[in-house]
C-alpha cells in the first residue's frame, strides 16, 4: 500500500472516464494507475501489485471479466470491481461469482469511490496483523492472519467477499443473522433496495464450495436470514 488509502488499477479504454475516475480517487488519497487494454493492465498489475482493480468489461483487446479471472489467479487477495454498461442479471451474477462488486454505467463517481472503499474495508487486511488464533466452528477453520479457510482439514478457495461473509457467520456461531445485518456488516450497505439478491447470490457460492467437502453447513430461516448448522 503506497498511500493511506491504497493503490487502484483503473482499466478503462475511454480516456475521459478513466481521467474522471483517476481524479476522484486521487482526491480521496488513492494511488492510481490507468490502463486501456488487457495487456497493459496485466503488465501494470505484475509490476505494482495494486490493492484493487476497477475493470471495464468491454476492452479493445479482450473481455474485462476474463482479465479479472486472470488477475484473481495471480493475486487472490486483489479486490475486483467491474464497471460496465451491461446490466442484465446474468451478467451481474456471473461477474459477482469471482468479483467483489459490479457497478453499471452511467455511474456517479462518488458512488464508485464509496463502493470501492467499502470493498477494500472488507477484503484488505491491515498493514500489520497480530498473530491471532483461528476461528473455528464445527469442522470449519478460518485463519485470521492468512485469510485462509479449511474444512475438515482441506483448503477451501474463497474470494475476499466470500471469506468476509463466512467469517461473519462463524463469529455469530449458531445464531440466525438477518439479511439486513449481513448487508450492513459484510457489504457496508446502509440503504439497499429490498429486491437486492447479493446476499442470496454469495450464500449460494459459499454453499457450493463448502458442501463439496461435507454435509450442508449453512442454514436458511426463510424471510429472516442465514446461520450455521
Automatic annotation (TrEMBL):
Annotated positions of the 4-aspartylphosphate modification: 56
Keyword tags: DNA-binding, Phosphoprotein
Alphabetized SUPFAM superfamilies for the sequence: CheY-like
DNA-binding region: 132-229
Any Pfam family: Trans_reg_C
Secreted in keyword set: no
Domain Response regulatory: 7-120
PANTHER family listed in its UniProt record: REGULATOR OF RPOS (PTHR48111), TRANSCRIPTIONAL REGULATORY PROTEIN TCRX-RELATED (PTHR48111:SF28)
UniProt name for this protein: Response regulator transcription factor
Source organism per UniProt: Streptomyces coerulescens
Amino acid at each position: 500500500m503506497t498511500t493511506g488509502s491504497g493503490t487502484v488499477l483503473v482499466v478503462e479504454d475511454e480516456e475521459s472516464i478513466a481521467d474522471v475516475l483517476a481524479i476522484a480517487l486521487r482526491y480521496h488519497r488513492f494511488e492510481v494507475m490507468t490502463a486501456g487494454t488487457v495487456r497493459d493492465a496485466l503488465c501494470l498489475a505484475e509490476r505494482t501489485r495494486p490493492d484493487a482493480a476497477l475493470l471495464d468489461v468491454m476492452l479493445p483487446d479482450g473481455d474485462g471479466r476474463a482479465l479479472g479471472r486472470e488477475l484473481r489467479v495471480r493475486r487472490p487477495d486483489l479486490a475486483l470491481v467491474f464497471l460496465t454498461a451491461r446490466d442484465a442479471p446474468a451478467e451481474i451474477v456471473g461477474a459477482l461469482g469471482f468479483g467483489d462488486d459490479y457497478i453499471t454505467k452511467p455511474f456517479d463517481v462518488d458512488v464508485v469511490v464509496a463502493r470501492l472503499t467499502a470493498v477494500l474495508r472488507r477484503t484488505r487486511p491491515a498493514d500489520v496483523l497480530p498473530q491471532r488464533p483461528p476461528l473455528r466452528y464445527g469442522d470449519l477453520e478460518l485463519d485470521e492472519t492468512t485469510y485462509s479457510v479449511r474444512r475438515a482439514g482441506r483448503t477451501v478457495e474463497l474470494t475476499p467477499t466470500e471469506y468476509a461473509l463466512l467469517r461473519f457467520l462463524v463469529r455469530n456461531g449458531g445464531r440466525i443473522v438477518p439479511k439486513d445485518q449481513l448487508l450492513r456488516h459484510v457489504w457496508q450497505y446502509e440503504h439497499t433496495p429490498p429486491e437486492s439478491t447479493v446476499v442470496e447470490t454469495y450464500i449460494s457460492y459459499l454453499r457450493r464450495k463448502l458442501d463439496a467437502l461435507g454435509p450442508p453447513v449453512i442454514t436458511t430461516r426463510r424471510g429472516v436470514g442465514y446461520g450455521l448448522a
